[in-house]
Amino acid sequence: MKTLKLKKSLVALTSAALVSVFAVAIPSTANAVTTCVQEAITVNGKNVDYEKCTGTDFRGSKYEIRMPSKFNGTMMLYSHGIRYNVDLPPIPVVAPTGLARNFAPEIAPTQEVGELLLSQGFALAGAGVQIQGWNVTEQVYAALEVNAIARDKYSKIDKVVAWGNSLGALSTQALAEQYSGLFDAVGAMCYSDSALSEITMAGDFLWGVKTFFDPTIKLAGYSAGTAGYLEMLGDIGKVLVVFQSIEAAITANPISPTWPATSTVPAALKALPVRSAVLMLGLMSGISTQSTTFDASSGPAGALETGFGLLINPALAVLENGSTAALLGVVAGYDLEQRAGGIIFDNSNTDYVARLGADADTYAAALSGQSLGIAGMGAYLNRLNPAAPRVKSDPAAVAKIKQIYEPKGAITVPTITITATADQVTPPGATQYLIDQYTSAVSGGSATKGMLVNIWNKPADEYTKFSATGSPIKPTVATNGTTHCNFTTSQYMAIAKLLGASAKSGKAPTASAVNAAIKNDPNLFVDANYRAPLLKYRQ
In this predicted structure, what is the pLDDT of residue 33? Predict the structure, then answer.
């Protein structure tokens, strides 16, 4: 059999994902007193003048407002995604120079989007929030404050669109439901599910990494104070070692890669290629088998084209996506435990083989077969196996997390979502759950019919590229429809345009308006019959 040559740079494919999960800016010191200054920028050759106001609200959240001189009457109130509530010392790959907690305000998904919106006459506003981590409650308060400050200062604000990314999308929907009538339209981009849903996904994957590859990973039950912080940092280091070891093994032998040296599973299980174990963990936790590099089906031209696409490509996608999920499980899990005062992840009764569902047949070959691979790995992961101890949550801690407001789908103003079908942090099932909630709320009379429009962002069926020697090539720009909140400027602007029109009309955009907005984008689609799989916590 021909040996498939993979570049040494394959090790960098997952390392890049590890970096992205911690890619936050180090904040600068902000003035605690509200200050307004006149500024100007050039956008597409056009001079744009605006007043920029910054300050800190009475709870300690920094905010920013930009009011263009040529104002169209609508303000876009933005809520950012999750930021980790810990400082990180220098850590190879993840944070080579260290990272500090970021409390800076954000007024738009990207700088370019913000500048384009200003040039079109939209006012912009957003907060940084005084507490980071899973801060849905704090984000709601911060958004309320900056909205009130902006409206008080600028009486000419006629309409307000509340929109957000990831956790900010969840916070925005929570804000709109709890303060009905305060906003004229809502945008939810890469919408997040609840803390328990997200930590179940990330925790299941991390527990699998611990159980299969390194039992010394703590995973849950971090100590209080400095000891717990150091335990969390230790887990980050161990996750890095595991993933780099697996990447190196696949680089050396993609057909039959060996298991990490830290693994304590029996020899019979180690006889399986480690890529099958990686795929098993992805399928049982809900990690997408499409990533920025791997499309779950393509192989290099030649004798190994079919084999690579069937056996290796899906596992490499999970490996690339799973690094982010594993670190989310570590840092977000630690944050939520500190917030709740106890363990919130629970897999004490989870049947991981049953979790596979139809995927057990679809990916049977890549999992090394039903009787050998699925049965063997499933038996080791079984809750009765003392070598694979489960995690039991603290009921009081879970109850505390459940007190955080979770949207009910009570949508009464035009609301637009945009969701990638292969997002590894906020999978499409989060948006699907909102759709289901909305359908139920309409039936129950707590939501207005015809107010929710869902736009899906899907990568092409085949996009993995290979070098002349058969090595996968990581794209320089993340594949649209994959990775977390990976939308183009034109996609953000299409959503903003639809939201602005809906805020003024009071109606959700028509099918023809949506189709016109997305017709030139091959990755976007609207289909009432499309149904994304719910997160495992919801199933």
Answer: 64
What CA–CA distance (Å, rounded) separates 514 from 425?
A: 26
CA nearest neighbour of 422 among 282, 243, 274, 250: 282
Q: Is-contact 84 132, C-beta < 8 A?
A: yes
Q: Is residue 1 part of a domain?
A: no
Task: Report CA-CA distances (Å) from 111 to 26, 43, 107, 115, 489.
Answer: 16, 11, 9, 6, 10
Q: Is 513 exposed, middle or buried (0-12, 13-18, 19+ CB in 10 A)?
A: middle
**Domain encompassing residue 203:** 10-21+196-399
Beta bridge partners of 78: 126, 163
Are 338 and 483 in a shared domain? no
Q: What is the pLDDT of residues 26-50, one digit of tens each?
A: 333 333 467 999 999 999 999 999 9
Q: For the chain, how big is the Rg over CA atoms in Å?
A: 23
Distance of CA 63 to the CA centre of its chain: 24
Local structure of 126: helix, strand or coil? strand
Q: Could you say which DSSP state residue 381 is in?
A: H
Residues 438 and 385 in one domain: no
Instruction: Quickly state the pLDDT bin for 22 (edges 50, 70, 90).
Output: very low
